[in-house]
Amino acid sequence: MRAAATICAAVLALPLGLVLLLAGHQDPAIGAGSAAGTPTRLARADIPPAYLRWYLDAAHTCPGLGWNVLAAIGKIESDHGRSTAPGVHTGQNSAGAAGPMQFLAGTWATYGVDGDHDGHTDRYNPADAIHGAAHYLCANHAGHGGRHLYKAIWQYNHADWYVHKVLDQAAAYATPTPAAAASGRGATAVRAALHWLGTPYSWGGGGPTGPSYGIAQGTAIKGFDCSGLTQYAWAKAGIQLPRIAAAQYTTGPHIPRTQLRPGDLLFFATNTRNPATIHHVGLYYGRGQMIHAPQTGDVVRISQFTGNPYRERQYIGATRPSATHGST
């Protein structure tokens, strides 16, 4: 953040046309909080999983602020912590900014956040810095979107070119999907699952309250397994699911593949004629994609299942959890 160190002869007025465009802009890929569009292929390739998790988590603290806006700032300021420029990892740059989100010491003293709850607020700590950026942007009303978002980013670094660059990068990182426009319990479940993208897979981990340490090979890993993630997501939508994937198969009407909606549960079995062999479950996201916790060594992610030979071969069906099968 170089806002306080930038020399400006006068505050530049925003172009009227751009203000009007942003004020009426409803693209969820730019300013729509935890439901901002799915990470694009570019985002998944460019953003380290831990950083993606922190961007998503920090955006959750500011309703209306898109995770992708934070990610765009992190990209521009330090390439998600990979930059070797002065001040990113130690010291500060010529403007006095430091850390992966480039905070000035005075700004950090006001807006710094202990993002990983380790008892310290450290502008060099990525979790703290990203949560601090969310705090700063939110204090400048970024969560209101439109011209408020523009002005909040401008406060981060007093330059119109910088705002344009952040918004362009944010748009490249997140693409609107059917899930972003969906409503109802399924959309709520999807948003809940999206919040935990990048969280480690943990065998036996996770449940209605969130990630947890698992069992067996998951004992030392805090995260979710496939059915723990779906159980959590649908709990946030007000429906309690059984813990095991095969048991979740009976928690709602079976839905034809042509009628899938975001949030529907997708099931995969070793024998597609025998539901007792179901071994995996995910949440339908839209456009042939699902949100799921795949396997040990992986993280909660969005994956293509339509056209994937392995998934297609094992797909046994889908259900739509309902209050008549679960409990609210």
Q: Could you please describe the fold and organization of this structure?
A:
49% of the residues are buried. Mean pLDDT is 86; it is low at 3-35. Strands 10-9-8-7-11 form a five-stranded antiparallel sheet. Strands 1-4 form a two-stranded antiparallel ribbon. It has a two-stranded antiparallel ribbon with strand order 2-3. The chain is built from 14 helices and eleven strands. Helix 1 packs across helix 8, helix 4 packs parallel to helix 7 and helix 5 crosses helix 9 (160-173). The chain has helices at 16-23, 28-31, 41-46, 49-59, 67-78, 105-111, 126-139, 146-156, 160-173, 178-181, 185-194, 226-236, 245-248, 309-314; strands at residues 38-39, 97-98, 103-104, 174-175, 212-213, 222-223, 265-269, 278-286, 289-292, 301-304, 315-319. Helix content is 37%, strand content 12%. By secondary structure, it is an alpha+beta fold. It has two domains: 13-176, Lysozyme (Orthogonal Bundle); 181-319, endopeptidase domain like (from Nostoc punctiforme) (endopeptidase fold (from Nostoc punctiforme)), CATH 3.90.1720.10.
Number of domains as seen in the coordinates = 2
CATH class of the largest domain: Mainly Alpha
Quick one: how many beta strands? 11
Number of helices: 14
CATH architecture label of the largest domain: Orthogonal Bundle
Radius of gyration: 21 Å
Please bin the fraction of helical residues: 25-40%
Report low-confidence residues grouped into runs of 5 or more: 3-35
Shape: elongated
Largest sheet: 5 strands, antiparallel
Beta-strand content estimate: 5-15%
- CATH level 3 topology of the largest domain: Lysozyme
Tell me the strand order in the biggest sheet: 10-9-8-7-11
